[in-house]
Amino acid sequence: MFNYLEPPNAFYEFERIYSAEQWAKKQRWIVDYLTEYQPDVIGFQEVFSVESLKTLLHKAGYHYFAVVDEPQVIDEFIYKRPVVAIAARFAINEIAAVEHDNDVAQTIGLSADFTFSRKVLRATIAMPHIGDVDCYVVHFKSKRPMLEVEQTSQLAPEQHIIAHLTADIAGGWGSTVQRGSEATLLMLEMIKRRETTQNPMLLMGDFNNNLIDGVLSHLLTDSLRSVSAFDSKAQLAQYCLNDAWQLFVKSQKTTATEFIRTPTHYFGASSSVLDYILLSCEFDTGYDDSFYEVSDYHTYDRHLINPEFERDDQSTDHGVVMITLTLRC
């Protein structure tokens, strides 16, 4: 949502307040996207004004809406720590904030007071034909270094560079550890929930990381080192997640080289895929008992690669990922 905060409130700093015109543009951009693409379920990140978003979505036909947290107010009108949200056209039967296992967290070296940087939302939604689906919305820790250099004029130029280099290296690694730990502990809770309910799973959001570079690759674990593939394949599939993009390519019955995945974020001259939708085996055509196939995969990025000021001035800095699920015959 890129700082969805109703004026006259400010996000992070005193002067960051939308004008009435800017706020109207931001709301119009959201409604225009929903009107054009008509998603049935949609996850949001960077929500400050929860009630405003709920009202906007209700008018757009989304009568089910949920959050599990609230932003932090650091002054009377200055906000930080936005939250995630979910909206749906189908009934939301259960809502919860995912709680991680403290014993596991400490076993893998995390502190006793470890928390997710943003609370993870789980909404159990009554989907057509398949029934209750556990939908998770995340906004994993950003790559912004956790350490900051204190602004001072006492440092010599070389010392200034060294201080920033130290902060970038150590602080960047700290953010990586946080992000990877969030994904790990969430995955364990998803497995635990799956074992209890057998509900299909859907995980979506801003991962702030490429999914396959090692930090988050365990979200796609599909084999076990200590168990033979023959013995574990059927059981393991029940607890694994699949990248919706790969499922889409598979459904097209062609080679992946014929498709080019659209980036969801641009930074300077570089681009990357940071936003994902992951699905359990019920949405994988390679699984005999699957209900749906991923028949389309679309990244909305017009506002990033071909923006128009009047239309996109107050949009978002990420591409919007959307998939279409088609019932298998």
TrEMBL record:
The keyword Nuclease applies. It comes from the Bacteria. Residues 26-280 form the Endonuclease/exonuclease/phosphatase domain. Pfam families: Exo_endo_phos (PF03372). One of its GO terms (molecular function) is endonuclease activity. PANTHER family: CALCOFLUOR WHITE HYPERSENSITIVE PROTEIN PRECURSOR (PTHR14859), ENDONUCLEASE_EXONUCLEASE_PHOSPHATASE DOMAIN-CONTAINING PROTEIN (PTHR14859:SF15). This is Endonuclease/exonuclease/phosphatase family protein.
